[in-house]
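Case study: HTH tetR-type domain-containing protein.
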Amino acid sequence: MEKTTEDRILAAATKVFMARGMAGSRMQDIADEAGINKALLHYYFRSKEKLFDEIFKQVSGQLLPRINQILTSDLSLFAKIEACCQEYIERMLHNPFLPLFIIEETNKQQGTFLERHLGDQRLNMARFAEQVQQEVALGSIRPIHPFELYLNMMSLCVFPFLGRPLMQHMTGLGQDQFLAMMEARKREVPAFVIHSLRL
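Here is what the predicted structure looks like once written out:
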């Protein structure tokens, strides 16, 4: 099926944001990548921020329901840790500029950014928390608060994307090397988290 102009613009914006970051991207760059003129780009989206808003809406609209599906499923606790970590990293690999921009916009807009984009959407942690508490009671894992465990998982998945510019500058990692490392973290992060829980 042929892409609509709006689809081409969003794909182009994602590619440009990934390569140059939000601050380094210009509307002209996005128009060139989409193969359209700048006036047409402005007709569809008035600014980079509007473009980002649409991309974020699409990504969050896919990610949060998927994470909730994993958290409320009948998978074992360790299988949920693996699935959640893989899902987060996979989404960030496709949109590595997202975490840093979300933090910047959340701080800049005093919380209205998340209200506007997420509304009353929340993580459904009840089943996950219950499983953590059960495993602790059985002596299968060390005592840990379920939200502490979830925070550990998210931090290990998302921080490399937040710290990417500094990490690449300090280590000399190229874009391809960084992405390959993040691909490997789909396995490394859950293995590290699970190992940290074992008694």
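For the exam, be able to explain this: Residues 39 and 172 are 38 Å apart (CA to CA).
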